[in-house]
Amino acid sequence: MSLIKQLWLAIIALLLLSFVGSLAVSIASSRHYIEQAVRIKNEDTATALALSMSQLDKDLVTLELLVAAQFDTGYYQQITLRDTDGSVLIERSANEYTGDVPAWFRQLIAFDVPSGVATIQDGWRQFGTLELESQHSFAYASLWRSTLELAAWFLLAGAISLAIATMVVRGIKHPLSRVVAQAQDISARRFTTIKEPRTLELRQVTQAMNVLSANVHQMLTQESHKLDELRRHLQHDRVTGALNRDVFMGKFAAQLSSDDARATGMLVMVRVQALETLNEQLGHATTDGLLRTLVSQLGQLDGEAPEPVVGRLNGSDFILLLPHADDVEQLSQHVTKALADVSATAPVAVYLPTAIVPYAPHDERGTLLATLDDALAQAESLSTHKQIVIRHRERVSLYSSHAEWRAELAAAIHAGPELAYFPVIDAQGEILHYECPARLKLAGEWQTAGIFIPWITRFDMESALDLAVVKKALTNLNTDLKPVGVNLSAASITNTQFVNELRALLEAQPSLAKQLCFEVPATLSTHAIGSLRGLCAALRPLGCTFGIEHVGAEFTKLADLHDVGLAYLKMDNSLIHHINTSTNQQTIVRGMATLCHSLGIQVIGEGVADNEELMCLFLVGVDGATGPGVRQPV
Amino acid sequence: MPAPSSHSPPVLSRRQFLATVGALWLGAGFGIHPTPAAAFDPQRLRQSMQQQYGQAGLSVLEEWFSLLQQLQNKDVQAQLRGVNDFFNRRIRWIDDIQVWGQEDYWATPLEAMGKGQGDCEDYSIAKYITLKQLGVTSRYLRMIYVRARIGRSQITQAHMVLGYYSAPDAEPLVLDNIVPSITPASQRTDLDPLFSFNSDGLWAGGSSESRADPLARLSRWRSVIERMQTQGFL
């Protein structure tokens, strides 16, 4: 039985006991008092009557008149005068007057009062005995009325007491249920923090659990910082902080082969001309400073990602990967300005020939790099101040104008997206869920996300698309009940209207909601993490799970996720790519997996290419895998 | 003689103590009062007399006990005479106001014997109680309020005598302290009877029940009965 229920039972039992008890005591004492009073009155009246009769002539008519006068006041049940032998001389008796007092009450009270007896004297002799009994109906009626009044007062007092008790119980229940919820959260490894309740015992429990959560958060922060340091040490160029060539190439390959918006963008390559001469002229320290400025300026060109992808391909070549970028002219201006800033910091003339090449899904990496080299060579040969060469690519744009794009996208979303199914398996080869990127029918064909997501983002249509995808997933679940992972954009989860609609949608089909996993990209702002936390809390009762996808090694927000309640984390292909040959990568992935497991979060590898990578992933403690190397279990 | 073995004083264990206190408390709550022994108790009478009037009172009491002994199996006439004479001789007739400092104080036989003084009703009560003790049923005995003319004068005075009724409607014998001998009522022309009562309904049956009643203590009868019970008469 719950504590609150016990509390209520105790309160009600106490109230009943005290009220019934005081009612009974009050009735009993009133009854006693009335009995005493009536008894004294009986004796008193009998004596007084006998006394006056003793003084009179013992004429029966006179005596009868006296008895009648006394009796007719109406307060007497019976007055009897007997002679010394005990035979009745005069008798007056009245019917029992019942009034409005219920019979059960009279039986319950049943006054027991002896009749008043007095002897009448005739000179020295005794004349007779007077016996007198009072009418009890008045006493019953008055006791009944006062009982009713008392009961009414007690009812009123009881109602007030119950109202007060309700407030008190609520005051206990509310913080108690919060504490219980927190304890359940912690047992599910969601290390939440709540406001301390005012009740002392609950406050102590809450304080202890809050401290626990804070400790876990601190521990996670430390661990992920350590991991981050290790990663920097292993993956970055010591001098400039740019990514090593291999690491950059891994990331680049991962993005190119990905099926979503990241597969479209720009590459910017900058060559520091005559680096050796610069070294001689400026000294190593100054030159290194110059290179660092260059890397940071390049990084600032990517305003979106928390950690821009800047790589150092060899001593003098630096490359920037700009996913999502599509406006070449604008980019060119930004690059020019950034490079001018870099040059300005150098005491001597520095030449920074630059090449910009756009990329699109399914481009060959080698071809792109060759194009870049070629363009860079051309830029080097330019003698103008502005050494930028742009290789325009023949964009296969589906539509020619923005208005057309917008209209077609809206129509396609309205018509409904299609879902692709990619299996995610665990170490035993069992299906965890299916990853389901959306396809939209544009220009008569089902197009992948990489084609339309940049436009969706540009037109702020993420929420509409995500909602359509969830609807489609629910429709598919109706016929085929396999767990489905659906992508949600950061813009959607911060959108209150979207969250409400999503919730309504899922609440309408609670049995299907359990089969849904929602994935948000790792590029989350702190604000978005807060929204995610709220969304998780709101949808968890429906059985939905949440995950984060495309988590790279640079992901340091793990500590902030300790109270969100995530089910899984999907690791970016850049971490998984060729993991079987890289001890460094294995170390990092193992560290991340351990951290995630301490929060009860599963770790899944993305873009697994072959069986060797798959085996290696499970060896380092990853829970699941997906990608071209993962086949549907037979 | 062997030395008396030294007993350790009876010490209640904590649990016994609590249980006793609890039982007493519960008993008090339920109205179970320890009733004083409602019976004739010579030992208690001696104690009461010793406490209140000392040796002199105690010797009168012993005489009273021997009177009871003497008259135990005599006939009623002899009992009436013996009792009447005993109290008329032992007790001096003095107004209550001088004896007790009250206008009208009903003394118990023990108080009357102890003081050796008393008012008319003190004689009547003492005779009544003694006769009852000798086995005369209260049905035959009534205290009678009378108007008395003292001597040959026309001065009248409120007085009380004890009447013995051989039958309820019979002429009573009057036990009085003004006229020491027992006479039939008709010969007592100096007395006018007004009203009579006895203790029927007061202590006959379970009278102890009314003792707890604060209103009942107002009655003189009840008050004297109560005192007699504590002193050991009843």
What is this entry, summarized?
By secondary structure, chain A is α/β, with parallel strands linked by helices. Chain A is 53% helix and 17% strand. Chain B has helices at residues 14-29, 42-71, 76-90, 96-99, 109-115, 120-133, 220-231; strands spanning 92-93, 117-118, 141-149, 156-164, 173-175, 183-184, 191-197.
CATH top level class name of the largest domain in chain A: Alpha Beta
**Overall mean pLDDT score of chain B?**
78
Approximate helicity band of chain A: 40-55%
Beta-strand percentage range of chain A: 15-25%
What class do helices, strands and sheet pairing of chain A give?
A: alpha/beta
- CATH topology group of the largest domain in chain A: TIM Barrel
What does this structure look like?
The complex is a heterodimer of chains A (634) and B (234). With 634 residues, chain A is of the alpha/beta class. Chain A has three domains: 158 residues, Translation Initiation Factor IF3 (2-Layer Sandwich); 155 residues, 2-Layer Sandwich (Alpha-Beta Plaits); 224 residues, TIM Barrel. In chain A, 53% of the residues lie in helices and 17% in strands. Chain A contains 20 helices and 20 strands. An eight-stranded mixed beta barrel of chain A has the order 11-12-15-16-17-18-19-20. In chain A, strands 6-7-5-8-9 form a five-stranded mixed sheet, with helices on both faces. Chain A is rod-shaped, with a radius of gyration of 47 Å. The mean pLDDT of chain A is 87. In chain B, helix 2 crosses helix 3, helix 2 crosses helix 5 and helix 3 runs antiparallel to helix 6. Chain B has a domain of 157 residues: C8orf32 fold (Roll). Chain B is built from seven helices and seven strands; from the N terminus they run αααβααβαβββββα. Chain B is of the alpha+beta class and 234 residues long. In chain B, the strands form two sheets. In chain B, strands 6-5-4-3-7 form a five-stranded antiparallel sheet, covered by helices on one side. Chain B has a two-stranded parallel ribbon with strand order 1-2. The longest helix of chain B has 30 residues. In chain B, 42% of the residues lie in helices and 15% in strands. Classes of the chains: A alpha/beta (634), B alpha+beta (234). The interface between A and B is medium-sized, with 20 and 22 residues.
